[in-house]
């Protein structure tokens, strides 16, 4: 399948998505293996058409939005990635993408003190206009979103970047928090609707958390953890 970096390459070479699909197999094969180039020349199958219809129905709902690389609202900071998400599914206040943002991340199995610290830092930062970005995971992530939301509707707000489709809440215990974030903040995902949680999706999510933010605050994390990977990605950006 096409990954985000390859999609960006094809867009740079051919132009808009419709130009990629209109290109000859030979032209595509200069940038892809022959099998994938041939598959791109085929019409979409029934499952793909069903997924497209589902996405269009989802987009008709209030506060739902789909951004592409060509959209003027697409966050410029994501373009610093070598593999920026070709599309972002959004649910909530899209204007939060234009606010200065800071990530607050940490352990899923956090201590009570860590949760209190994350909530307090996020509340303080949001009160001063910072949009708090995190990953809607249990523990520190959830506390950070809660702290930012508790700062009120006139504060900096919060963005939850998901490692699932935007219509799937993981973990399920954060369902109420996800609904509150959609109503008062912003949910974001690069994954197609219905995508379930898989371990390798979360590092992909973390690169978006890092790229959206001007800094990363880590509150409790193991030495080998996604939180420290997020911080390292941010330092590289």
Could you give the distance between the termini?
26 Å
Describe the strand arrangement of the main beta sheet, using strand numbers.
1-2-6-5-4-3-7
Helix content class: 40-55%
Strand content: 5-15%
Task: Write down the oligomeric state.
Answer: single chain
User: Can you write the helix and strand succession as a string?
Assistant: HHHHHEEEHEHEHEHEH
Structural class: alpha/beta
Mean pLDDT: 94
Largest β-sheet summary: 7 strands, mixed
Strand tally: 7
Shape: elongated
What radius of gyration results from the CA coordinates? 19 Å
Number of helices: 10
Low-confidence stretches: none
Description of the structure:
The protein has helices at 4-14, 17-22, 25-29, 34-40, 46-59, 112-127, 140-150, 175-184, 201-212, 226-236; strands at residues 64-68, 87-92, 101-106, 131-134, 158-161, 186-189, 216-219. The chain has 237 residues and is an alpha/beta fold. Strands 1-2-6-5-4-3-7 form a seven-stranded mixed beta sheet, with helices on both faces. The longest helix is centred in the middle third of the chain and has 16 residues, at 112-127.
Write the layout of secondary structure elements.
Blueprint: H1 4-14, H2 17-22, H3 25-29, H4 34-40, H5 46-59, E1 64-68, E2 87-92, E3 101-106, H6 112-127, E4 131-134, H7 140-150, E5 158-161, H8 175-184, E6 186-189, H9 201-212, E7 216-219, H10 226-236
Parallel strand pairs: 3-4, 3-7, 4-5, 5-6
Antiparallel strand pairs: 1-2, 2-6
Summary, kept brief:
By secondary structure, the chain is an alpha/beta fold. Helix content is 43%, strand content 14%.
Task: Please name the defining characteristics of this protein.
10 helices; single chain; alpha/beta; seven-stranded mixed beta sheet; 7 strands
